[in-house]
Amino acid sequence: MTLPEENPVSTQPTRRRRPSARRFRLLSVLGAALLALVMASLPTQAQAHGATMLPGSRTFLCYLDLQRNSSTQMPTNPACANAVRQSGTGPLYNWFAVLDSNGGGRTTGYIPDGTLCSGGNRGPFNFAPYNAARADWPKTHLTSGRTIELQHSNWAHHPGRFDVYITRNGWSPTQSLGWGDLERISTVTNPPQRGGAGSNGGYYYWNVNLPSRSGQHVIYVHWTRSDSQENFYSCSDVVFDGGNGEVTYGNGQTLTADEVAEAALAADAAPSAAPSTAQAEHAGHASHAQHAPAAAGTAAPAATTKEALRAGLLSLLPW
């Protein structure tokens, strides 16, 4: 009689264990989430950001006013405060984002009269209140006929053309701003820049010869990117009274040009008193253009969050 082998060796092929339906669904969900994060981190069209810093635009100077009163989240300037009551603080924490992703250099007939300061209200933030025709916006004091160095934020660097306009003689700050009110006084392509992109200390700069003017006016800057259809728009309220860059906030307080520059740098470094989704968006803009990290107390930069999530998802996947 033949005894059976103690350790018979199977000649059948080894079958691979199929994943359970639950594990398959988990991997599918994780894979989809990873793909979404990768797609979200790719560059999008609305990457450039900028507004005039000298003479300061409405959004820039109202933002500095907001930062000086961060405990209340309400600017002291009456026009700025009214705009915040209408559209919140989000537009000010993104003061550099008055944009139209499809602007393509178009002006008259595309951006409607009365909406020039908000870029036709086509951007991601509600800048419509900054079109208000009123004489008490923060204003920069200038001297008629003088040459100034115009400074325009390079929150994200891109090539393009800057067209500078000024309101005509006889224009009143209590009338809405239209294209027919403007005279172009300067055009420059790819101007030099100082400071790092993504901070209040970084900007493009070039000289502009101011025409003969008296009283209150608006200097309007239209930035046309040459690498996309995205355009940016900026309204700066000025008064020609022999000044040298001083800023009056409309509440009786006037700052020198140096004090305004110092306030801008302080706003970069100061932690926020009341973190919000608007401030998180502000920090996210800086991170996605590889700018300086957000200040302490603000939300983590969006790109850092995406990298952490992506790494965590990859560690869970079976490859």
UniProtKB/TrEMBL annotation:
- UniProt keywords, alphabetically: Signal
- InterPro entries in the cross-refs: Cellulose/chitin-bd_N, GlcNAc_Chitin_IntDeg, Ig_E-set, TAT_signal
The keyword Metal-binding is assigned to this record:
no
Is Signal found in the keyword set? yes
Give the region (Disordered) as residue ranges.
1-20, 268-302
Q: Which Gene3D superfamilies does the record match to this protein? A: chitin-binding protein cbp21
The Chitin-binding type-4 domain extends over 49-238
Q: What CDD domains is this protein classified in?
A: LPMO_AA10
Q: What is this protein called?
A: Chitin-binding protein
